[in-house]
Amino acid sequence: MAAPAAPHPARGQWLLLLLLAGGVAAFVVIWSQGLVTGERPQPLTFVEGVVGAPRAVNPLLAPLNTPDQDLSSLVFSGLTRLSALGEPIPDLAQAWQISDDGRTYTFYLRPQVRWHDGQPFTASDVVFTYSLLADPQFPGDPALSAFFRQVQCEAIDPLTVRCQLPEPFAPFPAYTTVGILPSHLLQGVRAADLPELSFNRHPIGTGPYRLLSLDEERAVLARHRDYYLGLPRIEQLEVRFFPNVEAALTALLHGEVHGLLVGQNVSPRQLEAVTKTQRFRLLDAPRTPYTALFFNINSPSLADARVRRALSLLIDREAIVRGVLGGRAVASYTPIPPGTWAQDPAIQPQAKDRQAAYGLLREAGWEREKEEPWRKDGQPMSLTLLTDTDLLREAVAREVARHLQKEGILVQVQAVTTAELLSSHLMTRRYDMAIFTIDPGPDPDPYPIWHSSQISPNGRNFSGYFGLEADRILEEGRKNPDRGRRRALYSRFQELFIEDAPAAVLFYPLYTYIVHRSVQGPAPGVLFYASDRFSQVWEWAMEEPTRQPLRSLSSP
Predict the structure, then answer these.
(1) pTM, whole model, 2 decimals?
(2) What is the distance between the alpha carbons of residues 297 and 503, in angstroms, rounded to a whole number?
(3) H/E element holding 542?
(4) Nearby residues of 127 by Cβ (< 8 Å), 6 or more positions away
(5) How far apart are CA 377 and CA 365, in angstroms?
(6) For the chain, percent of residues with pLDDT exceeding 70
(7) Are 69 and 172 spatial neighbours (Cβ–Cβ below 8 Å)?
């Protein structure tokens, strides 16, 4: 076969000239359209509104301030994270193993994880972070610090961490969700110095986004291209800070913000204004702190469980949620958060039941004549209801008192400071009834509030509740790592709780994540922390049109 002919010199020169001419023409067209400016095109940006101001973007200090918690959840990662049901699932640790005695947890870290500065993440970072938490001078959450002082962790090799606990503790993987700090940047830092670190304004993490800039008005974050769970789909995030929820909602309606999480501080009217625009999806998610009417079972009038059950049955929780809370809560009856893996859907809510309550009171020796108060041995049932000066809890307390007074229970409401309520009444068990809110932490474990060992002066069993079966269940529930067994135990505990009625759980707060319809992916489950709404943020996506400002309500 003959070799192919070489191109004619003149023909090759004309071809080159044509290509050059076409390239120049194309450049002129692109330049004239403003697509070549000498600068990188503006990245696609999702804007989140947050009420409050940042102080320290540091996962060890973040629980003290909501904006810091939000930013830390984007910048940092923990060994584990929580699923939509509150189950610990892998994060920086790709797996973990529990010893037969339940006291040793071995975490196997993901290989090739990089910090935002390109340095490798290793087991040394984990041990360093936990040592700061365990420092007696740790300036953050004292309960978290006290817990980690009991945990001994060591790096077995660069990708293996072994943690030794003094006794079996099934919720441990829920506590390893705390973000890990880079030891290569902070080695030698003392826990007491954490609040003053310049690192808190220029953090380096392993999370899906890295912080580019931060001031009092906004934080700008870019996606971490080496993120171990995959390249985040949204190029850039911006978090804007607002002094109050009204200002944040105004920015949302004016198209300045794409996402905003609101809690019980928003009114139905404000949500209706958002809904009317038809530009947003409203995603409801319950939070795990619960508000309850605590009974002091050492109070003479409340020593009988039948009386406590009767009072619980006389409270219309749904009416309180609709009226006082504007629908911004989930009525409930037990201390197991709804929507979590530990909740038993077979435990049906108790509606207000006047006849059942009256029957219980009569069984307990109380009598009532027509519209008179309930009496026993000639003395009326007269109780003091304490709460703190939180406006919401005080309003709930007055509504609970109204419900009980309507049914013949004399109730006097008294509001004191939170510190006084805790130190002078709840922890000393010097009260009849009290309205207070409890945060169970990152695991539904009811032990810290309802086990009899917590009746001690520093414990949180404010009711003084003691039950042999309840204690046994709570002890096994925090020792047995089998989630199915724990679920069964907590189901039985809920039955005992309703029967013994050491408190009347009233509601769990309902939060709503308002997000623009151009954003795909957000699907918040139960929020142990408000920042849990970002648990899958690297999978979110945005449509191109949201680069343009959204129209305000006043636009034609």
Answers:
(1) 0.87
(2) 9
(3) strand 541-542
(4) 153, 154, 155, 161, 183
(5) 9
(6) 90
(7) no
